[in-house]
């Protein structure tokens, strides 16, 4: 029967079968021989009687940190305040998520704590304009609709309110501290990636994104995953334009015309420099 790996602990693979049953399996030795490592999120074929994973379907995407595959969407949880909003961190997450063929969704938390909302409202308006789904944390009923039949990861820096958000959204029946423990956030918790059933879908926290880097990406990958650049880049003088030092660059023109957000472009230049220093 077909199923999905929802938890891995040592050599035990917890698989949710298509009929809803949950069983613990071992993996065939042939996977080790072929240097294939089963991941949480893998769609698999299992022998129910022998409790054995027989085949692993081709993955549509996978992450190394944390090790998880076949992710449909990533909710980037970013706070408006405490900690203050960081466009740099948001753009870094979006770029890396886009590169990994995962749909990014943005959720701003602690919006209700702001004394002045214009800056955040303008930011939200821009990201919506370039094609992202954006929510604020009091849009709970709207957020609940996006989880059904999806594998969702939540990511964001410590303190932005991921656990609180999950608590408001979910039917995990866990308090905030328990959620932190279950999702691997407890101080003394062994790191275990696990998918939890929530709102007719599967969801996981992703602490691995807390140490973001462009290690697997080229400078061109960073450029190409700033999605609004792609609308105008054909009008640049050079086909391989990096939109920094080149003349007759359409991206720089759009920044001067306030069509592309200057703050986001400055982040782009920082990312290219960060990648250059690593290379």
Explain this structure.
By secondary structure, this protein is an alpha/beta fold. Helices cover 29% and strands 23% of the residues. It is built from nine helices and 13 strands. It has helices at 29-33, 87-99, 118-129, 140-144, 162-169, 176-182, 219-224, 250-256, 262-278, and strands at residues 2-9, 12-17, 22-27, 43-47, 52-56, 62-63, 68-69, 73-79, 103-109, 133-136, 151-155, 196-198, 201-205. A hairpin with a 2-residue loop joins strand 1 and strand 2 (12-17). Helix 5 crosses helix 6 (176-182). The chain is globular, with a radius of gyration of 21 Å.
Topology pattern, helix = H, strand = E: EEEHEEEEEHEHEHEHHEEHHH
Uncertain spans, ≥5 residues at pLDDT below 50?
173-190
% residues in beta strands? 15-25%
Q: How would you characterize the largest beta sheet?
A: 6 strands, mixed
Rg, Å, rounded: 21 Å
Topology:
Layout: E1 2-9, E2 12-17, E3 22-27, H1 29-33, E4 43-47, E5 52-56, E6 62-63, E7 68-69, E8 73-79, H2 87-99, E9 103-109, H3 118-129, E10 133-136, H4 140-144, E11 151-155, H5 162-169, H6 176-182, E12 196-198, E13 201-205, H7 219-224, H8 250-256, H9 262-278
Parallel strand pairs: 3-5, 8-9, 8-11, 9-10, 11-13
Antiparallel strand pairs: 1-2, 1-4, 2-3, 4-5, 6-7, 12-13
Name the descriptors.
six-stranded mixed sheet; alpha/beta; 13 strands; single chain
Give a brief outline of the structure:
The protein is α/β, with parallel strands linked by helices and 279 residues long. It is built from nine helices and 13 strands. It is 29% helix and 23% strand.
